[in-house]
Amino acid sequence: MTQPTDTRTELLRTALSLAASGVPVLPLRVGKVPFGNCRWCADNACGGRPNMKNAGPCACPAPCHGWAAATTDPNVIQSVIWRRAWVRASAVAYHPGGAWLTVVDLDNADAVAWARETLPATRTVPTTRGEHWIYLGPMQSVNAVRPGVDIKSTMAYARYLGPGTGTMTDLPDTVRALAVKAPSPARSAPHAVAVPAGGGECRHRTPTYLERGIAMAEQRITEACSAVHATVYRTFLAVLSTHGRCGCLTDAHVTRLFTAAQAKGETLRHCTDAWANARTTLGL
Predict the structure, then answer these.
(1) Following DSSP, what letter does each residue of 66-119 receive, concatenated?
(2) Within a 13 Å sphere around the CA of 95, how many CA atoms are in the beta-carbon half?
(3) 3-class SS at 154?
(4) Helix axes 207-222 and 228-243, enclosed angle (nearest 10)
């Protein structure tokens, strides 16, 4: 669907204004969804890395890769290929984490009432069914942290619906805590592996040995140019085969591996599944 000239001009003007204030933007199609990857980037064939500050995760000039396409570069926003997208766009979106922001998306009246009773006041923006509460500071994006409540920050996008009202305040611990979920009983959660009973001092406890192993695993995931799912699984398997039975691994180590995988576009669920599958393969 092609938008009228005045509508797309307004969308472009809004995008440029936001970008000038340091907020990375991208166009949304009808249905509030990003433009899909071009044929060169389909299925992440480009192997690009999501970059939170510039346009797209690879050299492709199109508004590809969803949230990772968000940019503050006016030359990109006004480029020929982006202008073609603005012609078909229905809204402007932005990457909250890239602007050092977190959006608490309240999707109904009950969620709004809960926020007013529970969360510190901050800037609010009315939405079709509820409100966006915007805080200063990024965090992990998580959907459905409670009924009608999503958190949009890093590796996510939010629709721009206006400047809102109220003074923006720092991201509170009460919001960060919403992202901490109890492990599902149906799926093994990543955790430190206990030292076998009767085991002596573990040779892997040498700080240099363990640190080098985790750093190499992070690098292997980060440098993956294709088959990211398979690379993450194989890396988790390698780490667990070396350190999974002796008590070396801690939650901090697992978090580092998950962070590297999520930076390549893996979801938390994909990471958790890959970790659980690797443990199962090794009989842990």
Answers:
(1) GGGG-B--HHHHTSHHHHHHHHH--EEEE-TGGGTEEEEEE-SHHHHHHHHHHS
(2) 28
(3) strand
(4) 170
Can you tell me the distance from the alpha carbon of 176 to that of 161, in angstroms, rounded to the nearest whole number? 24
Name the residue type at position 154: T
Collapsed DSSP state (helix, strand, coil) of residue 174: helix
The single-letter code of the amino acid at 46 is C
Nearest to 35 by CA among 157, 161, 160: 157
Q: Provide long-range contacts, Cβ within 8 A and 24+ apart, for 112-115.
A: 114/146, 114/149, 115/149
**DSSP H helices in the chain:** 5-20, 74-77, 80-88, 109-118, 173-176, 207-222, 228-243, 251-263, 268-282
- The CA-based angle 256-66-39, given to 5 degrees, is 110
Residue corresponding to tokens 């980060």? 222
Question: Which token pair is 144?
Answer: 């459905």
Token duo for residue 159: 């629709």
Q: What is the pLDDT along the chain (284 residues), one digit of tens a residue?
A: 566 667 778 999 999 999 999 999 999 998 889 988 888 777 666 655 444 333 345 677 889 888 888 999 999 999 999 999 999 999 999 999 889 999 999 999 999 999 999 999 999 999 999 999 999 998 888 889 999 999 999 888 999 999 999 999 999 999 998 887 544 444 444 544 443 433 444 555 556 667 777 888 888 888 777 677 778 888 887 788 777 777 677 777 888 888 888 888 888 877 887 888 777 777 77
